[in-house]
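User: I've been trying to design a sequence by hand for this structure and keep getting stuck. Would you show me what you'd pick, starting by listing the structure so we're on the same page?

Assistant: Good idea, let's start from the same input. This is the structure you sent:
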């Protein structure tokens, strides 16, 4: 059977780097085995889910290099959930409850005061038909709880190993709200059954949900998928990432000029036993992927580390892979300029600044006017090429006796206005003799 996985965001906001990591782990797992990746929008929250957010999620995934094989929306499947809910009610596994949020909280507080776990007391099971009728005459509408078998759930987690959760320590979960909204545990299980999802890869905050869902798979007489629960990502201060806490969306890194493969490389290798490193393509990343190497340790995301990844990636990119974007930015010089400049770029958007130094005008920084005037006199005639810098500085050395930093630094500052940057052996022919002469003489060029 083909490997099938799903990434199931709620389109109530934009995804962040932690969400992207979950999507990447799913995509890499499936594609490394020739499988399929389903993007499922959990959009049953009508008040907060929007088509605009769904589109941004698709766009962000596509930017990373993740194009789904299928797309599904839970809002299109509400009748399917209602039919399965009706089956569960008939089987006696969904039962009606009428407590308000305040009443439930009072019950939990009373249990805590007695030193007991705040587990729902199953009062709804004791209601008679007369009780139901009386409550509904008062205008109350029930929410529906799943009657758990109070036994231990066990599974072999692909990341965490052998897992056990005692359902006797859990409250019967609400699967349907009073307004009829079907909640995550039920709709997700039905979707996983219908779309033949064989492996569920998600955050460790879903471990308890898995214990509940294993019972649902059994009650619905369906095959149980494998599960893999990865550790959650935290920010540099150790805080969990979430839309509600204001975590920056993935689009933030796109808009700031980070390369998608830098983001994908870091997100996919953080929290694994393999060394974090830059990968040039998703295929290369896929070839080294192994779900069993994902660690249970917390994963700390630091934007400074991403910046370092991005710089290392740019240093490896051939001119052909960035030529179109450089041209769109107005950057010329071809492969020669890119090969000289890329080691000085943290992001590709730095390139126009370096090209502006070549094309000018700039204000040269003349620290030693007499030395620079002497250097100007030694400028060779054009045409210039990659050997011109060595020839020129050799003449200056012979005339002045200077060498090392004393020889090169005044020239760099005069020609570029900076004390650092790409190799002048490459920049000099691009600057040209006329501009070089003017800059050495302290003129704007």
């Amino acid at each position: 059977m083909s490997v099938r996985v799903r990434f199931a965001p709620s389109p109530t906001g934009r995804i962040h780097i932690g969400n992207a990591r979950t999507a990447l782990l799913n995509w890499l797992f499936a594609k490394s085995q020739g499988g399929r990746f389903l993007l499922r929008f959990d959009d049953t929250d009508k008040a907060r889910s929007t088509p605009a957010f769904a589109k941004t999620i698709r766009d962000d995934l596509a930017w990373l290099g993740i194009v789904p094989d299928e797309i599904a929306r839970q809002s299109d499947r509400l009748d399917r959930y209602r039919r399965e809910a009706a089956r569960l009610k008939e089987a006696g596994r969904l039962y009606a409850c009428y407590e308000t949020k305040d009443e439930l909280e009072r019950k939990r507080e009373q249990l805590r005061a007695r030193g007991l776990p705040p587990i729902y007391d199953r009062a709804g099971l004791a209601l008679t038909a007369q009780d139901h009728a009386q409550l509904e005459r008062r205008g109350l509408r029930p929410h529906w709880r799943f009657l758990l078998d109070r036994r231990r759930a066990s599974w072999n987690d692909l990341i965490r190993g052998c897992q056990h959760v005692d359902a006797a320590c859990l409250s019967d979960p609400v699967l349907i709200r009073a307004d009829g909204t079907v909640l995550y545990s039920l709709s997700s299980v039905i979707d996983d059954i219908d779309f033949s999802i064989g492996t569920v890869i998600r955050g460790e905050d879903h471990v308890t949900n898995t214990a509940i869902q294993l019972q649902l798979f059994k009650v619905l007489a369906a095959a149980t998928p494998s599960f893999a629960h990865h550790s959650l990502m935290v920010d540099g201060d150790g805080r969990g990432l979430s839309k509600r806490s204001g975590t920056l969306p993935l689009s933030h890194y796109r808009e700031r000029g980070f390369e998608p493969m830098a983001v994908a490389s870091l997100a996919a290798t953080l929290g694994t036993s393999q060394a974090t490193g830059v990968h040039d393509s998703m295929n290369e990343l896929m070839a080294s992927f192994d779900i069993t190497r994902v660690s249970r340790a917390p994963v700390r995301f630091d934007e400074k580390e991403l910046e370092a990844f991005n710089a290392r990636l740019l240093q490896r990119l051939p001119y052909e892979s960035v030529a179109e974007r450089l041209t769109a930015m107005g950057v010329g010089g071809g492969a020669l300029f890119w090969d000289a400049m890329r080691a000085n770029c943290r992001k590709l958007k730095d390139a126009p600044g370096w090209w502006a130094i070549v094309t000018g005008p700039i204000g040269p920084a003349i620290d030693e006017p007499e030395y620079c005037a002497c250097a100007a006199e030694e400028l060779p005639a054009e045409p210039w090429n990659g050997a011109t810098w060595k020839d020129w500085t050799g003449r200056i050395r012979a005339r002045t006796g200077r060498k090392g930093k004393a020889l090169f630094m005044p020239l760099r500052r005069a020609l570029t206005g900076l004390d650092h940057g790409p190799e002048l052996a490459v920049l000099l022919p691009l600057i040209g003799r006329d501009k070089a002469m003017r800059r050495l003489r302290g003129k704007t060029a």
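That's my pick for every position. To get oriented when you compare it with your attempt: The radius of gyration is 31 Å. The mean pLDDT is 94.
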